């Protein structure tokens, strides 16, 4: 136990110190998450590279074991496949997350790297070959072992990433998953797994000191994907060593909250015709705040409580017989159904409108693709306006305004405004203005006004307009740079 405590304290200390350094450097160098989207819950720029400290805090005490001539160190070094999988895969996933935080990585690159790492883990022996069934005999996966293992690894990585929406939430969820694995490993006498979980627990708690609401730093994709990877890999190892009748159900239950949130998001987006990888504000933590009127911190604490319930259920499954496991699963299923009803996911009154919403969103998604593609090909600001002008009719807006602006070093500003109006109702206007920024440079605004009696902007339309604004901002910034270099090729902005 002393070795586990030392490992925990070393990881905690390294992560505490490095998080402070990373936070200050990120602020100085402008590596921050801007609050320029309706999808954001914070209202000021926050450094986003805290995951670097989590990765360093996790690896620091483990690397020290290679330098210490002790029985524990020699035992740790003897697990070559485990070390290759966690160290090699962890570094690759952390670098992918770091690249995404700094430069931005598209879904294709992320999944390509994640699937490659998952395949590597499978080759090293991280795999699921049996699916236990508390209601009957276990099921051998056979040839399905490879796809199931790969989907588990990729799924958990992205589940932790998706739930990273509130201060301290992803770290707290991961901590409860780590605690479950630590207890199970301790009961089985698995020293190496206990060391790994002690190191990860210390790194997470060191980071949560700065990340719990109000957060002064975010873990970013570097941290969330790394945590998901380690939890997925460790869960595979702990499940294969389990002698219970519900081996794989234990890690699934331990990570129940992020897995449930991800599955709900996939079903929701499929039914409503939204792109599978689009962002929205319909996750469990968002609905807790909007439907149950909870504060940011209260929502996180409630979800911590849900994680405790999942953790206790996972531990119960590990020690229960088949009949007791079945009762636990039924009881947890009832809790999940009640929670989903409270959050409005099972509201049958909205079922009739799903088909109509789906058709509208598919049409809207197609329009956004066409508009963003055309925006990036525009050769002038007039062409950009020509691309956007049809949006007024499609979105039934009474007024559409596109404003470009450039601010010079001496304080003067020049710009141009394009606008169109159309008869679309006589109610009190509802306005929406989206700031257009590219590389943190303000290039203008996109503004719409509705007079059709709506009380709020449709959420799908709002997200679509943000994507359009991003594309227009990117091209407008390029045109401004081109105007400086070759003034004759771009129509100049007039005052």
TrEMBL record:
**GO BP, one example?**
cell wall organization
Annotated Gene Ontology cellular components are:
plasma membrane
Spell out the subcellular localization from the entry: Cell membrane
Required cofactors, per record? Answer: Mg(2+)
Q: Where are the transmembrane segments?
A: 52-75, 82-99, 111-132, 139-163, 169-187, 194-212, 245-267, 299-317, 323-340
Positions binding Mg(2+) in this chain are 161, 221
What's one GO MF term for it? phosphotransferase activity, for other substituted phosphate groups
Q: Which CDD domains match?
A: GT_WecA_like
Q: How does it sit in the membrane?
A: Multi-pass membrane protein
Q: Name one Pfam family in it.
A: Glycos_transf_4
Task: Please provide the record's keywords in A-Z order.
Answer: Cell membrane, Magnesium, Membrane, Metal-binding, Transferase, Transmembrane, Transmembrane helix
UniProt keyword Repressor, yes or no: no
Protein name (database record) = UDP-N-acetylmuramyl pentapeptide phosphotransferase/UDP-N-acetylglucosamine-1-phosphate
């Amino acid at each position: 136990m002393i070795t586990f405590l030392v490992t925990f304290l070393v990881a905690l200390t390294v992560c505490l110190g490095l998080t402070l350094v990373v936070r200050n450097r990120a602020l100085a160098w402008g590596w921050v998450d801007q609050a320029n989207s309706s999808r954001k819950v914070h209202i000021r720029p926050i450094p986003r590279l805290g995951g670097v400290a989590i990765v360093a805090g996790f690896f620091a005490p483990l690397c020290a074991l290679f330098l210490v001539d002790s029985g524990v160190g020699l035992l740790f070094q003897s697990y070559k496949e485990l070390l290759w999988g966690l160290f090699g895969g962890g570094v690759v996933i952390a670098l992918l997350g770091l690249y995404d935080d700094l430069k931005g990585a598209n879904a294709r690159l992320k999944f390509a790297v994640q699937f490659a790492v998952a395949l590597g883990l499978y080759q090293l022996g991280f795999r699921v070959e049996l699916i236990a069934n508390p209601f009957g005999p276990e099921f051998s996966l056979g040839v399905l072992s490879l796809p199931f293992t790969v989907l588990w690894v990729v799924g958990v990585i992205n589940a932790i990433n998706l739930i990273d929406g509130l201060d301290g939430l992803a770290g707290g969820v991961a901590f409860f998953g780590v605690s479950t694995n630590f207890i199970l490993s301790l009961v089985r006498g698995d020293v190496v797994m206990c060391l790994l979980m002690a190191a990860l627990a210390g790194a997470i708690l060191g980071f949560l000191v700065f990340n719990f609401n109000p957060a002064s730093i975010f873990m970013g994709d570097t941290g969330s994907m790394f945590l998901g990877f380690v939890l997925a890999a460790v869960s595979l190892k702990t499940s294969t060593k389990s002698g219970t009748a519900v081996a794989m159900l234990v890690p699934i239950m331990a990570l129940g909250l992020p897995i449930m949130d991800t599955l709900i998001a996939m079903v929701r987006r499929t039914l409503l015709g939204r792109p599978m990888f689009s962002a929205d504000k319909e996750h469990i933590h968002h609905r807790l705040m909007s439907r149950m009127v909870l504060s940011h911190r209260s929502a996180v604490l409630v979800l911590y409580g849900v994680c405790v319930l999942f953790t206790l259920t996972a531990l119960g499954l590990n020690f229960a017989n088949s009949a007791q496991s079945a009762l636990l699963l039924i009881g947890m299923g009832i809790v999940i159904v009640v929670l989903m009803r409270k959050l409005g996911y099972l509201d049958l009154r909205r079922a009739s409108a799903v088909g109509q919403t789906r058709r509208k969103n598919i049409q809207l998604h197609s329009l956004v693709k066409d508009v963003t593609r055309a925006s990036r090909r525009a050769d002038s600001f007039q062409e950009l306006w020509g691309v956007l002008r049809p949006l007024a009719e499609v979105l039934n807006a009474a007024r559409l305004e596109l404003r470009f602006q450039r601010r010079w070093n001496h304080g003067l500003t020049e710009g141009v405004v394009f606008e169109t109006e159309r008869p679309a109702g006589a109610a009190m206007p509802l306005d929406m203005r989206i700031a257009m920024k590219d590389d943190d440079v303000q290039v203008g605004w996109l503004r719409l006004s509705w007079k059709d009696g709506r009380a709020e902007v449709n959420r799908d339309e709002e997200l679509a307009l943000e994507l359009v604004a991003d594309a227009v901002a990117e091209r407008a910034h390029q045109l401004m740079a081109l105007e400086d270099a070759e003034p004759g090729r771009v129509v100049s902005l007039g005052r």
